[in-house]
Protein: Transcriptional regulator
Organism: Microbacterium terricola
Amino acid sequence: MPLRSDWSGEHCPIRRSLDVLGDPWVLLIVRDVLHGRGRFDTLRDNLGISEAVLSRRLAAMTDAGLLTRVDYLDAAGRTRQGYAATDAAAELLPVLQQLAVWGERHTAMPRGGAHMAMIHEACGQETTQGQVCSSCGEVLTPAEMTWVKPWKHARDRLQPAGALLTQ
């Protein structure tokens, strides 16, 4: 049962955008796929999402043009299908980065948390903006971004649209 009306035919572009992106799982899945984590099991485990919910979201996101299916070989050498970001998903990078900036400014940091730095690899500097680098002014793309997550002891390089899965 849908939680709201269908807004796909609305004149307002914000409503149409929310018709595709309004479910919080969508942006979290895009985030993980941009990090190269587009395998079903990896998404399920990293997000803590049920298989049924993840399957529905992946199908809807593929239909909406955010994701594309890609083949990969599993540990046993069998061909499996995972997901890669499309250009439409890659264009959500500024939205994701602005959400991170907003979250750091306006939400309480949990115990054990730390600042997530977004590094523009082209200039080597941290950016505090989503769309253009606050240091050099260049437009930011996933292929040039690394997110440093101290609470995970991780330095994750983002993947460009269509990139093959790394995890």
